[in-house]
Amino acid sequence: MRLLLFASAFVVLPCRLSAGAETEQEIPALLERWIEVSTAPDAGPEAHELLDRLERAPRPALLGAIASSSWRAAPSRDRRALVELLGRTAGREDLRLMVELAGSSSGDAELEEAFARALDALLGREPRVFEDLARVLPDARLPIGSRIIAAAVATERPEALSLLCEGLVHAPALRATLLSHIARAARHVPRPIDPHVCATVREHLAAEDPAIVRAAVLAVAGVEDDSSAGELVPLLGHPDPRVREAAHFALKELTGRPFEADPQQWSTWWYAEVEWFATRAPELYRALESRNPGTVAAALNELSARRLDEHRLAQRVALVLARPEPELRRRACEALGQLGSTAAQMDLLLALEDRDPAVRQQALKALRAVTKIDLPLNPGAWRERLSPAH
Questions:
Q1: How far from each other are the two terminal CA atoms of the chain, in whole angstroms?
Q2: CA distance linking residue 100 with residue 136, whole number of Å
Q3: What's the half-sphere exposure (Cβ side, CA atoms, 13 Å) at 302?
Q4: CATH number for the domain formed by residue range(s) 288-386
Q5: Is 374 helix (H, G, I), strand (E, B) or coil?
Q6: Where do the structural domains in the chain lie, given as residue ranges?
Q7: Which residues are CB-contacts of 233 (< 8 A; sequence separation ≥ 6)?
Q8: Cα separation of 38 and 12, whole Å?
Q9: pTM, whole model, 2 decimals?
Q10: Would you say residue 166 has pLDDT above 50?
Q11: Residue 246: is its pLDDT beyond 90?
Q12: Radius of gyration of the chain from its Cα atoms, rounded to whole angstroms
């Protein structure tokens, strides 16, 4: 028989506990024995039996035993077993305990993997756990914080992008990892993306660390922050070649311009764009409201040729779909397809049911161009495919 000190209490533990020992007093010993058996190289049927009994044990008592401070200082092998157990039994309120047990993985890849699996399982059981990730992220050590970020993005929930941006403010040690995941998280967010999110990402273009700057450059491209183009142009002359390369890539992605990495050429173009949006764009917006169909058509033609800030331009163009003239509605669908923005895809979805067949066909063509989805002229099929739950 062994004598164990557990949570300041002595428990007499036989080498093998009798089946059904699931009272509150016996749970600490049952937990101790399970860890001993499950972490042994030759773990056998007893480990499965003990795990089954732990899963059926009174949850408050089990979690109280796991939360014992003695386990926070335990070897990573033992903490890995506890994290795996929490992955099977924990609820929303136990997320912080899971993070604390994982602590600093100290390079223990198996502990990191166990935490990732446990967090995925917890998110699967209780989706509301997602709301708590932002609260534990600032206190998480780097390897575990990275796993939290990856798990949040893997949910493909639009809220993941906001969570990452909160992390940029409250978890500065994780900035590089957060920025590197932003582009992926942004794929599941409707356009245009919240200006506050874009501004938070954009701030990191001025970081001192070239690795942070490069990650921020790729992130602003991921969130399609066209307004950052003016700050990307100077980065074409950054001392770090990786930053210069990323800035050139981001500028081409955001603008559709095929320019070489020439700061002067990009700067000239940028100032011309700023001038156009300040002077010409307001005139075209007013023209879209004209009673003269020819004036509206001309404005649609000019707006559809732009590539910067296409999401907001698309929102303006989509207003024409409410006009009574079928030809203007058709041309608005055509312009939206040329702009290529997903910001107006729901407007195009409604246009699939337009009373004019030419408008319906043009809306279908535009939707295919914008979404890269090839479906027939079936509004129901499109609604199902574009629904957030899909």
A1: 57
A2: 9
A3: 15
A4: 1.25.10.10
A5: coil
A6: 23-31+52-67+75-155, 288-386
A7: 247, 251, 263, 266, 267, 270
A8: 20
A9: 0.78
A10: yes
A11: yes
A12: 28
